[in-house]
Design goal:
homodimer; about 200 residues; alpha+beta; Jelly Rolls; Arc Repressor Mutant, subunit A; four-stranded antiparallel beta sheet; about 25% strand; elongated; DNA-binding
Chain lengths: ~200, ~200
DNA sequence: GCTGTTGTGTAGCATTTGCTACAGATAGAA
DNA sequence: TTCTATCTGTAGCAAATGCTACACAACAGC
C-alpha cells in the first residue's frame, strides 16, 4: 500500500500502535521528540530507500511508537502490513538483510549523534548539520526555527550562531534558507579536534 | 572462544577491526567515547546475555570499530568468529532473531539516551542513572569520576549535584559509592515532566 | 605511625545556552 | 497598495554547565 503526502503531515504520534513497515520512496520523514518547553528535537531522518526502523522495532517487539514522525512535503511511503512483513522476514533472506542493514545504519547514526552531543558544542553541530544537509549548490531550504528543532535548541540561539557564521563569511542567510559560502571554513568550525568519526 | 577479564580492561579501541561477535556471559562491558578534553562519556552497557551490537554492525558492514570498549572487573565474554557468525546468521533463524532483537534493543536505548539529553538536565539524568543502576539495596559502587564519565560531564559537577541530593536527604555518599536513601524522592527529581518514555 | 595516592567537598569564575522581549524585514493575500 | 503572518536580528539577563584551584578525607603500603 502506498501513501503520498503532498504537504508536511504528522504521520505517527507518540504512543500510537504501529500498523506495518514504512518504506520511504520519495521525499523524507523526520523522527523527533518534544522538549518539556514544547520545542522539537529531531532524532534522525528517513530518506528514500530507507525504512523506518522504529516501526520495525515495534513490530518485532510489540511496542507502541516511542516518538513522533512527520513527513516533508511531497513524500511517498510504502506500507507493508505487520503480519506480512514478519512472514517475509522468516523466509526471505533479502528482507532479513534489509532489516539488519537498516537497523545497523540507524545504530550508527544515533551513536554519531550522541557522540556529537557529548563532544561538540552547538556551533560545531550547526556547522556540521549545514554541511551534511545542504544541496550540492550549498543551499539549505529551512527556517531557523526548523534548524533549531533539528539540533534540539531554540531559534534565537540558531540566529546568534548564524550571525557568527555570516560575520566570518562562512554562510549567507535569507528568509527561509541558508547558503553555505565557504565550505572549507565551515568544515574547520566542525573540525578543530575532529568530532565526526 | 571464551575470554575472561579479572580486572577492568580495554577490550577494543576505536579504529580497531572487529574479530567476531561478542557475547557477554558475566559482568559487563562499557561502550564509551572521549570528549576533546579527555573525559569519557558512556554510550551504553552490555550486560550478561547481551551481545555487542556494534561488533555485529561492523561485521555486517565491514567497518572499523567506532568507539572504545572496556570491561568491568570479573567479566566473561564469548567470542564467535566473524565468518562463522555470518554463516550462522544465514541459516539459523534463532541467530537471526537474536541479532534483530539485540539491534532493536540498542536502538531503543540510544533513542532513550538521546531523548533524555534533549529533555532533561543533569540532575534529572543523574537521578535517573542512580535509580537505574543501583543494586536492590540502593547501593551503587562507583566513584564520582566514573559517574561523570557515564553522563558525559565532569567530576565537580557530579559532586555539586550529589551534594544537592544529600542535602535533600535523597542519597548518602561515601568514598567510592552512593546509596539511594529516598527512592521515591529521587524519582520525583527525574519525573516532574516525565522524561522517561 | 608516616606517606603517597586516590577520592571528595567547595569556591569562584568563564562560557555556553536558554528565555524574554521587541523591532525590523519579507512574502503573500486581499 | 495595505494588511497580516511569518521569519529574522538583536539585546540583555538568567540558568546551567565547565574549568581551575585547593583543602581535606579515606585508604593502602610501608
Amino acid at each position: 500500500m502506498r501513501k503520498r503526502f503532498t504537504r508536511p503531515t504528522q504521520v505517527i504520534h507518540k504512543g500510537q500502535a504501529v500498523s506495518g513497515a514504512y518504506l520511504v520512496t520519495d521525499g523524507q520523514l523526520r523522527v523527533f521528540t518534544y522538549t518539556p518547553q514544547g520545542s522539537e528535537a529531531t532524532l534522525y531522518f528517513i530518506r528514500p530507500g530507507e525504512t523506518c526502523v522504529l516501526a520495525l522495532n515495534c513490530l518485532f517487539n510489540d511496542l507502541r511508537y516511542p516518538v513522533w514522525i512527520e513527513s516533508d512535503a511531497d513524500t511517498a511511503v510504502d506500507i507493508i502490513p505487520g503480519p506480512l512483513y514478519r512472514r517475509l522476514f522468516e523466509c526471505e533472506s533479502a528482507v532479513q538483510d534489509l532489516t539488519v542493514k537498516a537497523l545497523s545504519t540507524l545504530v550508527f547514526r544515533l551513536m554519531d549523534e550522541l557522540e556529537q552531543i557529548h563532544t561538540c558544542n552547538l556551533d560545531q553541530r550547526l556547522a556540521n548539520f549545514l554541511l551534511s544537509n545542504a544541496s550540492a549548490q550549498g543551499v539549505l531550504q529551512m527556517t531557523q526555527q526548523e534548524l533549531a528543532g533539528h539540533l534540539g535548541t531554540t531559534r534565537e540561539v540558531v540566529a546568534r550562531l548564524m550571525q557568527g557564521f555570516v560575520a566570518q563569511g562562512l554562510v549567507s542567510t535569507r528568509r527561509g534558507a541558508v547558503t553555505v559560502v565557504d565550505t572549507v571554513g565551515l568544515a574547520r568550525v566542525v573540525n578543530p579536534s575532529d568530532c565526526i568519526f
